[in-house]
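Submission sheet (multi-component)
Chains listed below:
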Amino acid sequence: MSQKSKSSKAAKSKPKSAAKAAAKPAKPAAKAGKSAKAAKKVPAESRVFAPSAEFVKSSRIQSLDQYRRMHAQSLKDPEKFFGREAAELQWRKPYRRVLDWKCPDAKWFVGGQLNVSENCLDRHLAGPRRNKAALIWEGEPGEKRVLTYQQLHREVCRFANVLKRHKVKKGDRVVIYMPMVPEAAVAMLACTRIGAMHSVIFGGFSAESIKDRVLDCDAAVIITSDGGYRRGAVVPLKKNVDDALKGGETKVRSVIVLKRTGQEVHMEEGRDVWWHRELEYVDAVCPAVAMDSEAPLFILYTSGSTGKPKGILHTTAGYLLHAQMTCKYVFDLREEDVYWCTADVGWVTGHSYLVYGPLALGATSLMYEGAPNWPENDRFWRIIEDYGVTVFYTAPTAIRAFMKWGDEWLTKHDLSSLRLLGTVGEPINPEAWMWYHRLVGGSRCPIVDTWWQTETGGHMITPIPGAVPTKPGSATLPFFGVDAAVVDDLGKEVGKDEQGKLVIRKPWPSMLRGIWGDKDRYQKTYWSDFKGWYFAGDGARRDKDGYFWIIGRIDDVLNVAGHRLGTAEVESALVSHPAVAESAVVGRPDELKGQGVVCFVTVKEGVKTSKELADELKRHVRKVIGPVATPDEVRFAAALPKTRSGKIMRRLLKQIASGEALKGDTTTLEDVNVVAALAAASAED
Ligand code: PRX
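Outcome: structure written.
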């Protein structure tokens, strides 16, 4: 396995295995003496990058052997391993047992009590972190704000008192629908301070999506803002909330509105109040409530393979521990780091790696409100340079967009402060990995490609920088406590380089504890394909070094620009349009977004199909679900390909959508002509 890259100046070796790469310090490519021609023949993904000796020197975990020992111990003796890690949290009441596990119900740190906001804020106030930046914020129009731990604590206490004024109690659900402003984090932490659960809804979701979620979790209070900035435009957040509450089906009694963009908004008498006005009535003293380890912490909705989004439930101690631990071991965060996670707080990445993980660890977390290409394509690089960002965590979709925009946008900036890079959300193609490595990381920064999900709460398969050599496109090896495997349909581990289903065979601290209000669905979705094991919905393979290569979803879930989208959700939005009789939605590969959304639609008798109707249907989906779900293409079909039992054959539609030649068995089709007609129509397009 001889390989070299012509382009990378750093860490490349000629290892027999990843283990060897770890043992051997990196050699600069020039010295390795490989010609560019030879390098070209080597696919990017066969290269191995060992962390530089300099990075290793100051790492918490410094070798592959050390990682393997720790990982083995975490599986063999989770009580001891996690018990030791949990000692780093601040407990109100010590726990009696580390784990109670009766599949699918896990209880971690049984009998213990703590408070998340106390762990993220109060405990840092006694020492030098008191005046350290907790949040550094930049608004899209350019405003800058820094909140020290002390200031953030004060804001959280005051806002927690506002929530109390609005009769929010322990266990109540509070919906947060806000732009990326510090107040979003304040609102989340304020909920945790008084034991209320939050459910953050991403600003790209529509009024109808808000309503569905508010109804599902039975929220009594919504926190929002007049608007948010996105690519220079104002997103009308309050208006969306108003529309969601029209009709009076929900039990929402208070809407607390932050003034951000300043445009005129409707304020409903007796229901809507301004955030800044409410602060006038409260003081800054708010003791944190001691919460049971297993007390519900938040609900976060995500797409599944049915039309109804799932309210993923996370609980207190295990979630917080995992978020803190991964920030410590995976991001290797230090006191002096300026850490930037570009994810929105509306996604799980924003929860675990913008708010809870870094703050629990006492780190400095940077938050940016807007788009990466506003006002110009170098906004991210400008921010990195301006603040001296050291650890940067973003999504492959963003990386591919930057590649497309051209290197000159970043080469004019000094990115030398960076020391570690991360990616999340979708498989990263080796070319994008290499670009990230060379251009952003200056060939010196390890890249942690972190595989995980809303359900897992935190990183599951990821390199430990300093210990695990990386391969472009592989999430490498499991995190501590994670017993991951790739299996066939019978649960037997597949062979080397064979594709199978990715399962987790043991409970882990930050695992979801359920789907809000639907115990059966929880059991059925995650724990019934393989008894006692968690099935993630992803396909994967492992190579000869045991490295995991995530292939992507193998269920009916799409991953569009790193955002999960259920095909059934889009289908149900389409059939809610009066012109539509039936629809089938599939993904097709997209160079930038990973996947694009293609909708096959049959219309009702008498409806004429046209480009205008296709555009209207796109707008309709946008309205029903939100801009995140906008279809790339709507194709009309006289009929959809179905089996004799009436099941739509998506496999064939996927092939048609991506312009592939049709392959595989079609004998179960009810009417072969349907597929022929669809394929012929697409050939004419
Ligand atoms: O398919 C996997 C993909 O994103 C899915 C989870 O999406 P969500 O719950 O929205 O969480 C995204 C942020 C954690 C997974 O089932 N995915 C996530 N990270 C990776 C990934 N696919 C490949 N490599 C990754 N690093």
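Remark: Residues 145-289 form a domain with the Rossmann fold fold (CATH 3.40.50.980).
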